[in-house]
# Entry
Amino acid sequence: MRKGVLFDKDGTLFDFQSLWGKAIADFLQAPELQLVKQPGQFQLDLGVNDDGRVRSNSPLADGTNADIALVLVQHRLFHGSLESAEQFVASFFLRFLQHHLSDLKPLGPLADLFAGLQQDGFAVGVATSDSLDAARLSLTHAQALSQVDFIATPDQYPSKPDPALLYAFCREQNLHPTDVLVVGDSPVDMALAQHARAGIGVLSGVGTRTELATPYVYPTVMDVPYLTVFQESSSK
# Structure
């Protein structure tokens, strides 16, 4: 039986805090954002709690560049269009990634993980709220891009948890949604998994075991017994 695994990226394949924690701190200090009159509320609306942690189900944790841009516009940081705000957000985080790539930490040898899954008959997909350029750059940094069969980003598809990207993965890889495991660190990933065979939660990102609400929760992607979960999970 042909199978598939669709991974989230940040917090799942890559450590969230090592790079994006600093990126968010720099973003909040960007000169373009100095007009904020209520920085506390602005940060909360983005998804940064008072203790500095990024909250799951928030624009910074699960949202797209457009979601973050909308918060900027709502706080009147941009007098132009939503599109111009989105362009600023996308360029800021891509530029930060390019300049701090050494801080991007894969949560294990991803190329080996993907190659092993493919040997077991799994197609490997990555579904992220990041841009396609950032996703490709991250996977290239991890020396794992060539092992990925499919990448879904908001540049191409509706963002998670819309199942359109899952269906596209299935079309390209000749799969049915009930052949696919969805792996992620947030409730948004687990909501997408409702359209797939099963959701696998990992505790390496922003989501807690309670928030992930799946019987399959592991410390990292390297700890998941993929074949066992596939065999034990019931097709919908």
The longest strand covers residues 122-127. The radius of gyration is 18 Å. Residues 3-16+105-232 form a domain with the Rossmann fold fold (CATH 3.40.50.1000). Strands lie at 3-7, 122-127, 150-152, 180-184, 198-202, 217-218.
